[in-house]
Amino acid sequence: MTKKDLTIGMLGFGTVGSGVATMIRDNEKELTQRLGVKVKIGKIVVRDMEKERGTYVDHGVLCSNVSDVIHDPDIDVVVEVMGGIEEAKYAIQESLKAGKPVITANKDLMAIHGHSLLRLAHENSCDLYYEASVAGGIPIIRTLEDGLASDRISGIMGIVNGTTNYILTKMKEEKWSYEEALTKAQELGFAESDPTSDVEGLDAARKMAILATLAFSMEVHLEDVSVEGMTAISTEDLELAEQFGYSVKMLGFAQRDEDGIDVSVEPVFLASSHPLSSVRNEYNAVYIYGDAVGETMFYGPGAGSMPTATSVVSDILAACRNLLLGVGGKRSHNPMNSRHLKGEDHQSAQFFHRLLVKDEIGVFSELTSIYSKHHASLGSIIQRPGEKEGEAEVILITHSLSRKNQGEIINELKASSSVKQIISNYRVEGGVK
Amino acid sequence: MTKKDLTIGMLGFGTVGSGVATMIRDNEKELTQRLGVKVKIGKIVVRDMEKERGTYVDHGVLCSNVSDVIHDPDIDVVVEVMGGIEEAKYAIQESLKAGKPVITANKDLMAIHGHSLLRLAHENSCDLYYEASVAGGIPIIRTLEDGLASDRISGIMGIVNGTTNYILTKMKEEKWSYEEALTKAQELGFAESDPTSDVEGLDAARKMAILATLAFSMEVHLEDVSVEGMTAISTEDLELAEQFGYSVKMLGFAQRDEDGIDVSVEPVFLASSHPLSSVRNEYNAVYIYGDAVGETMFYGPGAGSMPTATSVVSDILAACRNLLLGVGGKRSHNPMNSRHLKGEDHQSAQFFHRLLVKDEIGVFSELTSIYSKHHASLGSIIQRPGEKEGEAEVILITHSLSRKNQGEIINELKASSSVKQIISNYRVEGGVK
After folding, report:
1. Domains of chain A (ranges, CATH numbers)
2. Residues of B with CB below 8 A from A309's CB?
3. E strand or H helix at B45
4. Which part of the chain is the ACT domain (chains A, B) (predicted)?
């Protein structure tokens, strides 16, 4: 390929798109020096041609039709920052078939159709890069694909949703209620007006599916991720966690051993000494355990216009470099390993249970016999008076047991006439593996 | 290039080399799947052919002469893990001239001769990778070259020497003396029997020169790094730091603004809320501030056989991939920016001073007038009784001032008859930029 300038067609011009345009304009000199040719934005597809835009672009580049970009022979690279599933998928497919490398920031799409899109890219000798789809400004996709490529990754723990981490931080540090923290996050612009996908863990689940796919070289699907939201977390739980040396975090897990894999998103009591515990506010961090490298962690902003644009433009640089060298899409994304999900009997963790029980003789021994019957040994047991006469609160932290056994314990506790309420129930992570 | 198996020639078979051999053996299947061809170790140059080795290798691969590897046409890739400067430099130069890509873990060499070696690699269309030379298992070189390539990096702060961080952690948490902590680090095998290069900051300075070169795309030399060691840090300083909300860390800095760059290694009072403050023991972490991405941090093991091998083998994968595609050494390493070192009048920071003064009328106002004369405003001033009658201790934390002014203040304090001793003097970092 001759060294002509490279032209980008961008689909969408929202938060991320305007960051990308700003960055390409402001860093023009550096980008040109890195590539040896100039990169310019040739077309931007927008929904509303008349809308006032905060970011200056020549109005001549705006157009309204996706096909204006994907079928334009002058467009060398396509950047998809429009979001959504079907239209974005179609646009990416057509771009790849037309021989254009694609950069996307679309986690929803990559979590569902990533496997087939990456195959299509490889078949068409085009790159499909998606660094911005997980943990905004943190180059975590690249780290798994290149930096740690030699290692066998056995576990990932991630704070991959900034909204929920912000809410938990403010509930803990400022004693705000869940609702106050959520409202503030919405005012600051990083929680959506409908926060369901964040607080119910779906957004994090999409990212964990993408990370697990890469880390394990396995076709992990969104449906493989078990998800529990954060709405049941109370300020009291946070205080209790702190007393026991934990912080409450919404964590994504992807774990692998000889029995298979286990991917989940759930609220967790995380040991305060764990590096992820000190991740505050809307920051993201991904903690990776590799058999050879041991513990590593990658920390940074999980969202925002400019951080996300950093990842998109780094992807643009990589795609352009490959295009100039004629080596696009060389990496096969066929999974090396077949996917085997662990059953609940093989998924093990520690658990924190807080129970409201009758304050009667024999209750304590009834409780402990329920635990031992299901092969749970206990690390801590604390009984304290309940708020009402005749009630006691019991807090138990188990040693590691299977999720199956823990489920059976919970069912038996619910059925017991001595147990008035299971106030809370958290997975516990002891920190350093 | 036809897809034949690729053969590695390794120079050296110490801690890192045996990790590399172990990893290539244990992960053979995965490496082959990633590359499409098999990678094997064809030759290993050792000093002592007869020595018993903990890592199994076929004795037929051992040889005693560097030229057996660099001039062997069957060797495709050279891995330099022998250490030292002159012999390693010669071996790398000859390998590159012979058209063989080189992977090195040699920070001493890269800090001094990296610029010329990278140019030589580019001229010979060969890759020269050196991920393992900085922060062992953390893929920080790649992050600066690719993941954050689009951004303008304005600052790096790094814990890039595991030995000193281990010593400081143990002095703080276990109340060990400096000598006790050093001895333990030597027993554990991560401090050398001669710890000078670690504790005097030279090891960290080499790494900061390498990081600054990449981050600023500038030819930064080892001599450009101003270095202060850790031997003056006392347990009392650590306690005092904690009282004021700081931890004492040996930090590497690389900072850039319109006045130029400033690279240093020094003991610092770092705000406890800063992400680097929670990096404990022998771990490394590199905190990067980019104009667009904002704050990021990369954390992991800084040394050790297998973590370092992870970086070396990831580099081997990248070099092999480029070799198979015929695109080795395509990246020019010519610096994009010319190097301009800031003078001391443009290097600014906050400082913590602890002084032993005469407890007399007028001393306090004499002190404060020295500070204001040199344009230093004070954030905190605390006076407390000294251990002896007639003495007082004064602790001052300045707002930001230039190093030049701070030097003048120190000189004037030394000259003052009211000041009996400057007990300690630290740079202060307020945390989040």
Report:
1. 6-136+305-325 (3.40.50.720), 142-301 (3.30.360.10), 348-429 (3.30.70.260)
2. 150, 292
3. strand B39-45
4. 352-427
